[in-house]
Amino acid sequence: RCSDGRALRCDNGTIEEEDCATTGTVCGYGASGYACLPPGVLGKFQVRGTVNYEDRPPGPTGLGPTTPLPARGVAVAIVADTGSTVLAFAVTADDGSYVLRYDAPAGAAAHVLAATTSTIPTRPIRVIRPDGRVHGFGSPSFSPAMDGRQDLTVTEATGVAGAFNVFDQLVVGMDGIANTLGVKTPLPPLFARWAPAAADGTYYIDDPRSIILLGLVSDNDAYDDAVVLHELGHYVENLYGRSDSPGGSHDGT
Fold first, then answer.
1. Rounded to the nearest 10 degrees, how much is the dihedral formed by the CA atoms of 161, 162, 165, 169?
2. Rounded CA separation 140/151 (Å)
3. CA 228, 231, 235 angle in degrees (round to 5)?
4. SS3 36
5. What is d(CA 82, CA 112) in angstroms, rounded to the nearest whole number?
6. CA distances from 84 to 113, 115, 120, 141 (A)
7. Which of 47, 54, 202, 215 is CA-nearest to residue 129?
8. Of 25, 86, 157, 225, which is least packed with CB atoms within 10 Å of its CB?
9. Average pLDDT, the chain
């Protein structure tokens, strides 16, 4: 992530820090993530902020009250209002923060868009709607500035926060594959299909590798963390394990 003009990276559990000002560079998002990069490559304008979403943590009697959590590892872009051109792209850090540097005509309106998809090879996740589109949440429009700020909070009322929680649980699982199973190579993409009122059931399919989740008012699995991770377990089992299960319904009884 970028912090006060410094680039911070985790390397095998050790945080490495680089002060970009000492090399005449600026912290921005490049091909290998956040790093100190030449300013001319990234653009003269900057917008930064934090993306959070409202979680409903499971408790012994049901879902708890909304609790803000960082939307880590989601795609974030600055998009021109006219023509919907993507002016810059990045991924949020694990604290939900982001920095986008871009060029745009003076006075041109744009907005920040956070979306439930990842370009990180060890987190090949995409949470989609039944029509195949990625869930997204946008900021209000603004004009280019040398150092603008746009903080986004994806609320439950928008009907999108559940998708961001599914994404976050898949981050937990994908990081577990890397850190617990020791799989460091890029993983096959995994799709999770969910939307409010989705009634197709909750299950895993292998072609394409996908998790299907209920979105009913009476049974919304987007906030059922253990259910999401259970379905991810089928992905892990298929790739790295062996099973003689014939498949089919399994509800604990």
1. -170
2. 10
3. 130
4. strand
5. 13
6. 11, 15, 24, 12
7. 215
8. 157
9. 93
Tell me the pLDDT tens digit for each residue of 69-78. Answer: 999 999 999 9
Q: Which residue has the tokens 């871009």?
A: 102
Q: How many Å apart are CA 42 and CA 20, to the nearest integer? A: 14
pLDDT digit string, tens, across residues 83-130: 999 999 999 999 999 999 999 987 799 999 999 999 999 999 999 999
Q: Under DSSP, is residue 102 helix (H, G, I), strand (E, B) or coil?
A: strand
CA distance 89 to 129: 22
Q: Please give the C-alpha separations between residue 114 and each of 75, 91, 214, in angstroms, as whole numbers.
A: 6, 9, 23
Other beta carbons within 10 angstroms of residue 25's beta carbon come to 19
Q: How far apart are CA 125 and CA 132, in angstroms?
A: 13
The residue type found at 37 is L
Q: Contact 94/70 with Cβ under 8 angstroms?
A: yes
Question: Amino acid letter at 14?
Answer: T
Taking each helix axis from N to C terminus, what angle separates 161-179 and 225-240, rounded to the nearest 10 degrees?
A: 40
> Counting beta carbons within 10 angstroms of the beta carbon of residue 27, is it exposed (0 to 12), middle (13 to 18) or buried (19 or more)?
buried
First-to-last alpha carbon distance for the chain, in angstroms, is 45
